[in-house]
Amino acid sequence: MLDLHLAQPDWLNLGGARTALFNWLFAQAYDGTLILRSEDIDQERSSVQAEESIMADLAWLGISWDEGPDKEGPYSPLPAVRTVRCVRTFCEAAN
User: Fold this and answer.
1) In Å, how far are 20, 24, 93 from 65, measured between CA atoms?
2) Which of 20, 38, 32 is closest to 76 using CA atoms?
3) pLDDT band for position 82 (50/70/90)?
4) Looking at beta carbons, which pairs linking 18-25 to residues 24 or more positions away fall under 8 Å?
5) Residue 6 and which of 44, 49, 59, 91 are 20 to 30 A apart at CA?
6) What is the pLDDT of residues 29-80, one digit of tens each?
7) Which domains does the chain have, with CATH numbers?
8) Three-state secondary structure along the chain?
9) Best CA proximity match to 8, nearest among 37, 34, 42
10) Phi then psi dihedrals of residue 37, to 5 deg
């Protein structure tokens, strides 16, 4: 799974590109699935424009994903903020 960190400026930095490339190569080598997920926990700094810009940068680099914000799939990636809510609910129920 590759997380898009949307709280950074709305461009793909070198570290993000490297991580995306390694995840993409790993998925290709092992006939896996690359899932792109929006890391949108910081709601004040996250934006749709940042998500679209980063996805365009990844596509320019030739990195494609099987599931993500723009592609539905069997695992339908949840935005991180919903994942946090689910984990919090589970933890509260366990107490």
Assistant:
1) 10, 8, 34
2) 38
3) low
4) 20/58, 20/61, 20/63, 21/61, 21/63, 24/63, 24/64, 24/65
5) 91
6) 999 988 888 776 666 777 778 888 888 999 999 999 998 888 888 866 566 6
7) 2-94 (3.40.50.620)
8) CEEEECCCCCCCCHHHHHHHHHHHHHHHHCCCCCEEEEECCCCCCCCHHHHHHHHHHHHHCCCCCCEECCECCCCCCCCHHHHHHHHHHHHHHHC
9) 42
10) -125, 140
| Cα-to-chain-centroid distance, residue 11 | 14
Burial class of residue 63 in the structure, from the number of CB atoms within 10 Å of its CB (0-12 exposed, 13-18 middle, 19+ buried): buried
Q: How many CB atoms lie within 10 A of CB 69?
A: 17
Total-model pTM: 0.71
Q: Which amino acid is at 55?
A: M
Tokens describing residue 6: 């949307």
